[in-house]
Amino acid sequence: MGEVILACEGLKKRYGDLWVLKGIDFEIERGQTKVIIGPSGSGKSTFLRLMGLLEPPTEGKIYFEGKDVYGSGLDLNMLRAKIGFVFQEPSLFRHLTALGNVKLGPKVVLKMKDEEAERKAMDALKTVKLEEWAHHYPAQLSGGQQQRVGIARALAMDPDIILFDEPTASLDIELTWEVIDVMKDLARRGVTMLVVTHELGFAKEVADEILFMDDGRIIESGPPEELLKNPKTPRAREFLRRLIGGV
Amino acid sequence: MFTFENFLFLLQGVPNTLAISFLSFALGFALGIPTALVKQFSPFGLGHVADAYISVMRGIPVLVIMLLFHFGMAGIIPVFKSAFLSATFALGLRSGAFQSQIFRGAINSVGRQQMMAATSLGMNRWQAFRHVILPQAFIVALPGLGSEIALLIKDSSYAFVLGVLELTKYSDIVRKATRSFLYPYLIAAILYIMITFPVANYLDRLGSRLKTKYGLR
User: CB-based contacts of A33: which residues, under 8 Å, 6+ apart?
Assistant: First the structure.
């Protein structure tokens, strides 16, 4: 058993009168890749934002490397720095170049010297194969390139885990491939990843486990071959039939 | 008779007009950003103080603020013995309230997603503002700031009432000396346009150019 990086227990989230998450237990170990699938409105993105410590839970506990995040007065910003996050919407800092985007975190949060942060950032941009685009602004990059810079921005912080919230949902198909290729590469390098996506090819190839979410709960989970071929719950079966069949 | 010498004499008012306008703009800038941030975050419940400041400044004619400072408060606050400084502070205080509104609109336009991205890197609120939100907000604010400078240049003419030797005061002196009623004010009007237009127009264009470059809305 590897070290558990991120876990939660009885996680619930309410917006107004609406319970979006209704009790989730989850854990992910160092080096694992887990993929979350499920219909829209099932709470996937909310779950990810909570695990990224971007929003507090209404009930339940989140553990980072075994420590109760909200229960022991930990510095949330210190923890957020160790949890990378790649968003669905374009979220690069628009006034900074690709390089500027990637080196800002190491510089401002990790207090690295400029040259050191820049080296770190260039390494991360190489990993996503964008070193030649380092000096371009987000507005000059394609959607796929922007998402890869977003991945590099997370990588440059040397995070213990990276969370991906449907990183290809707003991209054309070819752009989706270039982003997915980078993510597969990361998974093979042993980066710990929790990914919300409907790219089942990605899930089949690199996921250790797929979690199916519906109505604020994880209702089924298992290794990709098992869950994708023989889903046990009717909801998952129906969802996968539509996703694969396109109907 | 209005002569070329009169024109040159009148020009001597320009430096004070510029000085009042740009100093009050700088003061307004220095007040505007903190006020916008206080209104945004309301630390220690100070949001109401910012609201009150903005309402008061929006509700009083700037000429009345100048008169109040120079004639009413010079005894308590020695700085206001100077007509020049009274005018500058009055305009600067009002501009601070106006600029805070410009910045607040600009900050809101930058959007929550940028804040969320900064937060996800582990930045605290101040770091996120300093490195991510404000630089973008500043670009969005440029056209608004251009209009604000134009407004200050024009309203610096109120300082004439306090006896400050600026452009309007000089044109009035020339009017009295030459008995020419049209030209002194007409020349002053043209000079005001010549000062306000390039400044406001430059900031407008710079704003649109940078917005396009960075893909800001």
Answer: A187, A192, A193, A194, A195, A206, A207, A208
**A·B CB contacts under 8 A:** 75
C-alpha neighbours within 13 Å on the C-beta side of residue A181: 11
Whether residue B117 and residue A137 make contact (CB cut-off 8 A), yes or no, is no
Neighbouring C-beta atoms of residue A140, cutoff 10 Å = 15
**pTM score of the predicted model:** 0.88
For residue A76, give the chain B residue with the closest CA.
B122
Handedness of CA B196, B151, B31, B20 (dihedral sign): positive
**Min Cα separation A90/chain B (Å):** 8
Taking the CA of residue B116 and the nearest CA in chain A, the distance in Å comes to 7
How many domains does chain B fold into? 1
A chain contacts of residue B127, beta-carbon cutoff 8 Å: 108-109
User: Does the structure's ipTM exceed the value 0.90?
Assistant: yes
Domain containing residue B67: CATH number: 1.10.3720.10
Domain span holding position B47: 4-213
* A81: contact with B, CB 8 A cutoff: yes
Could you report the average pLDDT of every consecutive run of 10 residues in chain B (217 residues)? Answer: 87 96 97 93 88 95 97 94 97 97 94 94 94 95 95 97 95 92 93 94 93 85
